[in-house]
């Protein structure tokens, strides 16, 4: 008996109107969590192993926090993402 190792969703059909697309997303489950046990989902990023303290001017920290809130993430997560992006661009 064969079992699927991971759920593979069907391709999303093209939509003719915004209402058609809204109806589709209102009636379809977009998460894999209901189909794949949580422990079998791949990690999106490896665990952080080290800590670094960076001193910033209050105004810089506030701007960073505003950008992070707009993206719905923590300011330290956004700072880490930007550092990684910059390092990758330099490589």
What does this structure look like?
- The protein is an all-alpha fold.
- The chain has a domain at 59-91.
- The chain is 44% helix and 0% strand.
- α2 packs across α3.
- It is extended, with a radius of gyration of 20 Å.
Key words describing this protein structure:
mainly alpha, single chain, 91 residues, extended, 0% strand
User: Average pLDDT, to the nearest integer?
Assistant: 81
Q: How big is the Rg?
A: 20 Å
Residues in β-strands, percent: under 5%
Proportion of residues in helical segments: 40-55%
Output the number of helix runs: 3
Low-confidence stretches: none
The oligomerization state is: single chain
The N- to C-terminal Cα distance equals 47 Å
What class do helices, strands and sheet pairing give? mainly alpha
What is the molecular shape?
Answer: extended
Outline the biggest β-sheet.
Answer: none
Would you count the extended β strands for me? 0
The helix-strand sequence is: HHH
């Amino acid at each position: 008996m064969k079992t699927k190792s991971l759920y593979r969703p069907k391709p999303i059909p093209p939509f003719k109107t915004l209402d058609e697309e809204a109806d589709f997303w209102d009636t379809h489950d977009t998460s894999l969590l209901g189909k794949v046990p949580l422990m079998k989902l791949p990690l999106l990023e490896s665990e952080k192993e080290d800590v670094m303290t960076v001193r910033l001017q209050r105004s810089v920290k506030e701007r960073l926090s505003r950008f992070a809130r707009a993206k719905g993430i923590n300011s330290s997560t956004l700072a880490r993402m930007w550092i990684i992006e910059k390092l990758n661009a330099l490589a």
